[in-house]
Write a structure and sequence with these properties.
The chain is of the alpha/beta class and 498 residues long. Strand 1 and strand 2 form a beta hairpin.
Length: 498
């Protein structure tokens, strides 16, 4: 049993009384020994149900520490752990269920009513944990290349795709993170990232558990509560998305608090505005940015937080056990400061898209993952993510990278957030279009913003039109939803024509 498949049992043997998991909502705490006891109960349940290797187990639940026990139990039995986004509609969930065809849907109390609408066998998480005892494992045939997880992408550009991650992919991401980032048993992370997302499982939680540290879970994000928890649990490194950081910086708590145990705050999930870097720097708090995606890691680079303060926006250099390269439009390796598509190679790269060979073949070339993200590296060899390849705007024959325009916009003292897209334009091909939220309402503010941008940007990069919104639409993991922005702009144009 004690192979790479069951490293959590080895960790429990090394650190049986160390706290592994804490539920910040209930206050419940599990040692590593308690965690493996719960894993064993789930393995026993799966054995009793006679599930076979390759069967899919779907999870529909808010963040809670029991999910880690189910995840490891699936691994021990060769079952595929499939966490679903509980914010999806019933029809969207049914699409995914039809795609992965699970033998069981495990859910929390909150989603019991939704699960009753599925024509699948369903099980409440708390029901399986009653009356279980120690038992002998029946060993499954297993290979490190076998699948362990299917994590479905957000589907913002089409139907969700099931990203298949093998034991190798999950474990090598953890190993690479531990070695490259210097994680150890003293580390503690607070995780508010949803555990149906790779950031909620693979960014810090599994690496820290492998290293023998402590994972604190939270479910519904509240900026002030999260900041207080960072100090309560003496956390060392935690991942939040930029929108969470924006909310944190607006709290009273951060104005008076210090974070003595925190090595650095880590931002991911979306490009981080430099204004957030600046505000953390003013408070003397170390802050850095990472880069990843469900199909690789999600950890791929490392930068020391003190270096990050001098090179804002850089994700640093690739980690120890993976490779990266940037390819230009001619299929050649990019030179310094040349923008091209980022490719990633390593054992942490995904196996395939579930039931989707065509998309798999488009994404993987000779083992390399084509990320669809544009990047560059400077003369120090430090990498920068410029934006999504699909989001690049070609206006009047010139390339415009939305992230550059967005970074300019948020430096305006009255702009809280900004998002930039390209819209079809008869004259320019595409016109640069900005969506912003403001700190204060100002008459004719659009004209002021355009004048402001002209001071820093080439004329072809300056937004042709600006929409002022109360809030920017977001995906379920806090990213700005540019697909919805496209629809908002389309609807306005349609109403103008009518």
């Amino acid at each position: 049993m004690f192979t790479e498949q069951a490293w959590i049992y080895k960790r429990a043997a090394l650190s049986p009384t160390k706290t592994a998991l804490i539920d910040s909502n209930s206050g419940e705490q599990w040692t590593y020994k308690t965690l493996t006891d719960h894993i064993s109960k789930w393995v026993q349940h799966f054995q009793e149900k006679q599930y076979v290797k390759g069967d899919r187990i779907v999870i529909l639940s808010q963040n809670r520490i029991e999910l880690f026990a189910i995840l490891f139990a699936c691994g021990l039995k060769g079952l595929l752990y499939v966490p679903l986004n509980f914010r999806l509609s019933v029809s969207e969930l049914k699409y995914i269920l039809n795609d992965c065809e699970p033998v069981l849907v495990i859910h929390d109390e909150e989603h019991q009513a939704i699960c009753s609408k599925f024509e699948k066998e369903c099980l409440l998480i708390s029901d399986v944990l009653e009356g279980r005892t120690e038992f002998p494992f029946s060993k499954s045939e297993w290979s490190s290349s076998d699948p362990w997880l299917i994590i479905y992408t957000g589907g913002t550009t089409g139907k969700p795709k099931g990203v298949v991650l093998s034991f190798d992919a999950v474990n090598w991401n953890a190993i690479n993170t531990i070695v490259s980032w210097g994680l150890s048993e003293v580390d503690c992370t607070l995780n508010y990232m949803p555990m149906f997302h790779t950031g909620g499982l693979n960014a810090l939680c599994l690496p820290i558990l492998m290293a023998g540290g402590t994972v604190v879970t939270g479910s519904r994000f509240n900026a002030e509560v999260a900041l207080m928890a960072l100090n309560t649990y003496k956390t060392t490194m935690s991942l939040f998305v930029p929108t969470m950081y924006q909310a944190m910086l607006e709290t009273d708590y951060i104005k008076r608090a210090t974070f003595p145990t925190v090595k650095a705050f880590l931002s991911g999930g979306a490009p981080c505005p430099k204004t957030i870097y600046n505000q953390f720097e003013e408070k003397g708090i170390l802050f850095k940015e990472g880069y990843g995606l469900t199909e690789a890691g999600p950890n791929n680079f490392f930068i020391h937080p003190q270096r990050a303060s001098k090179k804002k926006g850089s994700v640093g250099k690739c980690m120890q056990f993976n490779e990266v390269k940037i390819i230009n439009k001619f299929g050649e390796l990019c030179k310094e400061n040349e923008i091209g598509e980022l490719y990633i190679f390593g054992k942490h790269v995904f196996t395939k898209y579930w039931n989707n060979e065509a998309e798999t073949n488009l994404a993987k070339v000779n083992g390399w993952l084509k990320t669809g993200d544009l990047a560059m590296f400077d003369d120090d060899g430090d990498y920068y993510i410029v934006g999504r390849k699909k989001e690049m705007i070609i206006s009047g024959g010139e390339n415009v990278y939305p992230q550059e325009v967005e970074q300019c916009l948020v430096l305006h003292p009255n702009i809280r957030e900004a998002a930039v897209i390209g819209l079809e334009d008869d004259k320019w091909g595409e016109s640069v279009t900005a969506f912003i939220t403001c700190k204060e309402s100002i008459v004719s503010f659009e004209e002021e913003v355009i004048i402001y941008c002209k001071k820093s940007l080439g004329s072809y990069k300056v937004p042709k039109k600006i929409f002022i919104l109360q809030e920017l639409p977001r995906t379920d993991v806090g990213k700005i939803d540019k697909k919805r922005l496209q629809q908002l702009a389309f609807n306005e144009k349609k109403s103008e024509i009518c």
